[in-house]
Amino acid sequence: MIAVAGGKGGSGKTTTTVGLARAFSRRGAPVVAADADWDLPNLAELADETGTPVATPESARSGAVESETLEAEPVGREPVGSGKHLTVTRVARGKRPVPVDRREPVVLDAPDRPREHDAAVVLADLDDVVPEDAPLLLDCPAGASPDVAAPLRAADRCVLVTPLRRPALRDAAKTAAIARRLECPPLGIVVTRTRSVPDAVSELFRCPVLGRIPAKSPVPLEDAAVEAAYDSAAETLVETYGRDRWRIA
């Protein structure tokens, strides 16, 4: 399990989670991306709005994953995002098998009633039910808030995400320090909205730069240069960490 963490909101953390997940899928990995930012969840929404649609229960019924009738979600507010996605809690507690798909990532939405669940317990259970050879990415809460502790404790390692702005670098460095204290050391940094990164950045975080993501707007994940940058970052992650762990080409 890899936590994708950063400084304050707007660093590109959720975009990086989706970008890396799709990059792993392009290499044939059965990747799962889960929203661990339960107060401000937008992983499923971003995934639905950009690029090729991610795996959903509908795709499962069409044969992409195991066919099975979905149980209705509990009565309450509408699920965040498109409403098509399984929630982290539903999968973690075994109410639905993980619909892993080697052709496209599976995105798990935040729970409908986040305050009714212990995030640390849910994420630990999720780690147990996702196949060991499938990359599992957690989109973390922003910054160094108390909520970021649960995904960092659950994850084995983290990937840091930051733009090259001084306040953002300072906040990401605080997150990196928290991650190390929680025994979730950084595998590296993804630097967003740039084509070059000074050597001092790697020295500041005491880990390598995994990717340099160019600034493309308004929809960076639909840009070929951004896709290539995430492909390169994913390749580095595979070579340095996942080669013997993940089922990946």
From TrEMBL:
Domain CobQ/CobB/MinD/ParA nucleotide binding, residue spans: 2-219
Region (Disordered): 48-69
Signal peptide: none
Gene Ontology terms for molecular function: ATP binding
Pfam family, one: CbiA
Record has Nucleotide-binding as a keyword: yes
InterPro entries reported for this sequence: CobQ/CobB/MinD/ParA_Nub-bd_dom, P-loop_NTPase, ParA/MinD_ATPase
SUPFAM superfamilies: P-loop containing nucleoside triphosphate hydrolases
Classification via Gene3D superfamilies: P-loop containing nucleotide triphosphate hydrolases (3.40.50.300)
Keyword annotations from UniProtKB, A to Z: ATP-binding, Nucleotide-binding
Source organism, top-level taxon: Archaea
UniProt-recorded name of the protein: MinD/ParA family protein
Native organism: Halorubrum glutamatedens
